[in-house]
Specification:
Blueprint (H helix, E strand, L loop, with lengths): L1 H5 L34 E7 L3 H11 L7 E4 L21 H11 L1 H24 L7 E9 L2 H17 L11 E4 H8 L8 E9 L2 H14 L3 E3 L4 E6 L5 E5 L2 E10 L17 E10 L13 E6 L2 E7 L10 E5 L5 H4 L13 H15 L12 E11 L6 E4 L6 E5 L9 H12 L18 H5 L18
Parallel strand pairs: 1-2, 1-9, 2-6, 3-11, 9-16
Antiparallel strand pairs: 3-5, 4-5, 7-8, 8-9, 10-13, 10-14, 11-12, 12-13, 15-16
Helix pairs in contact: 2-7, 2-10, 3-4, 3-5
The structure holds flavin-adenine dinucleotide.
């Protein structure tokens, strides 16, 4: 993994694979340019137009004295991880709670679980409040578990959550367990035999459409957007003003926000090996012939010994309703996916992962999948670049020893349940209003020198259940 973490991170590549969500791209915003050249100065420069950058812009724009805001995007609008993800707003907090409580204490583990839950609720509420048409589904999800150890870990972690947050038994800590027989009937998993299933509140949306909606609202409030405009260098002048070089000229500003996720290192060297790109892959399956009429009842994950897949049936009424979005399969690639770390190449797919993901639907659903659609099982497949940190948490706040350089990046495969609240927290910090954050924002997410010392070891694995935590 050391070698992979040391691969020099590049800027976003040209000609990425085309994701399901960006086909076609939004005709108004995808290639938006506020002007041919960037202005000479701005109050704030945001680099990156994914869910983080767009919501940082939106939050800044809520204050009366927001000043001028420029957003730079290397490719089309929202064409990083957000425009290429699964769109699962699924926290699965019980899968990390035990580990978080073990390494950071129960209080922080509760804060993280609450933030994830609140983030889901906030994204769904925001989409509804602003009428953003993004194929939103708010409802249950299920984890179909195929490995006894994973099942035991889950059960014990849920018990720990219930003890630690008795006042949240109907929200954050609400889980329902199902036997393997119940799982077969209720969730149609008539293929490979599972240990059991766990269901809870979650949702899904087109993150691309959501962000395009946010960007349109931000543009109306004065955001200046420059797509297809990579920021190539970020330097501080002697006067303390930041100078950002772009393909459309140089812009200077009092403050800069890096919302660059897996691509942060080329602009801020101290993140080389600390935010490591990881390529994720997704296949969109046309529904099998015996899939239940009216669609599947929830979104899914399939959890096995050393990995997982996540699956989102496209909701009724959406384009290609009933299609199955299936992502994951990392550990099925050569050396458990080692070569997917450190790469920013989302212009190609990994053939091993492609083959594996293609076979998942009939394997999990068995007779409830049936014959393939006459146009073939796979409608589309694509890749996208995530940003992974050594401790598995995002970096949110001021970049150490750099005045007025801010960041919110490294959201692993989990940004749909983190970025909304992290953007809110970052803007509070930038406004000097961060005292109120202590009650809900985990210190563990802030950017510290100590976190930058940590060594990147890959995706973190959950600790066995016999590792005791103090409640
Ligand atoms: C295949 C895949 C599936 C996923 N599925 C899920 C899921 O189902 N649920 C979930 O919670 N999370 C999922 N994730 C993770 C989630 O998508 C991310 O955590 C989240 O989108 C991060 O958002 P962001 O805005 O911080 O980063 P991004 O969306 O990556 O945005 C960063 C932007 O910065 C731009 N940029 C970078 N460098 C520069 C530069 N120098 N100049 C100009 N622009 C620049 C990039 O082009 C990009 O548009 C998935 C990710 C992938 C790749």
């Amino acid at each position: 993994m050391d070698e992979r973490a040391a691969v020099p991170v590049t800027l976003p590549r040209v000609n990425p694979t085309i994701s399901y969500w960006q086909d076609p791209p939004d005709s108004e915003v995808a290639d938006y340019l506020s002007s041919e050249q960037v202005p000479e100065t701005a109050d704030t420069i945001i680099i990156g137009s994914g869910i983080t950058g767009s919501l940082v812009a939106w939050n800044i724009l809520q204050s009366a004295d927001h000043g001028s805001i420029i957003m730079l995007e290397a490719r089309q609008a929202c064409s990083g991880a957000t425009g290429r993800n699964g769109g699962h707003t699924k926290a699965a907090s019980y899968r990390s709670f035990h580990d978080n409580a073990y390494s950071l204490g129960t209080e922080t583990a509760v804060k993280i679980a609450r933030l994830e839950y609140d983030n889901i609720k906030a994204v769904h509420a925001f989409a509804r409040e602003h009428n953003i048409d993004c194929d939103l589904y708010s409802g249950d999800t299920v984890d179909i578990v195929y490995d006894q150890q994973q099942w035991d870990n889950g059960v014990k972690s849920i018990e720990a959550m219930r003890k630690a947050m008795p006042e949240l038994l109907n929200t954050v800590a609400k889980y329902t367990s199902w036997s393997k027989e119940e799982a077969r009937e209720k969730f149609y998993v008539k293929g490979e035999e599972c240990v059991g299933a766990i269901s809870y509140e979650a949702g899904s949306l087109s993150a691309y459409k959501f962000v395009i909606g946010v960007l349109k609202m931000a543009l109306k409030k004065g955001l200046e957007l420059f797509t297809n405009t990579p920021a190539t260098k970020v330097d501080k002048g002697e006067d303390g003003i930041w100078c950002v070089q772009t393909s459309r000229g140089v812009v200077r500003a009092k403050r800069v926000v890096l919302a660059t996720n897996g691509y942060t290192a080329p602009l801020c060297e101290k993140f080389q090996g600390k935010i490591v790109p990881l390529r994720g892959q997704i296949t969109a399956h046309r529904p099998g012939k015996t899939q239940p009429i009216g669609g599947l009842p929830t979104t899914y994950s399939f959890i096995y010994k050393n990995g997982y897949e996540y699956m989102i049936p496209r909701p009724q009424g959406s384009k290609y309703e009933g299609d199955i979005i299936m992502g994951g399969g990392l550990v099925m690639a050569k050396e458990e996916g080692l070569e997917e770390f450190g790469t920013t190449d989302d212009t190609t797919i990994n053939e091993d992962i492609s083959k594996y993901l293609t076979e998942t639907t009939p394997r999990y659903f068995g007779s409830n999948w049936g014959k393939d659609h006459e146009d073939g099982r796979i409608r589309k497949q694509w890749t996208g670049i995530m940003g992974y940190s050594p401790d598995g948490f995002p970096f949110v706040g001021a970049v150490p020893r750099e005045k007025n350089l801010w960041m919110a990046a490294s959201f692993q495969g989990h940004g749909m349940v983190l970025c909304f609240m992290c953007a809110r927290a970052l803007v509070a910090m930038m406004s000097g209003d961060d005292e109120k954050l202590n009650s809900w924002f985990p210190e563990a997410f802030k950017v510290t020198e100590a976190r930058l010392e940590k060594k990147f070891m890959g995706r973190l694995h959950t600790k066995p259940v016999d590792v005791e935590i103090r409640l």
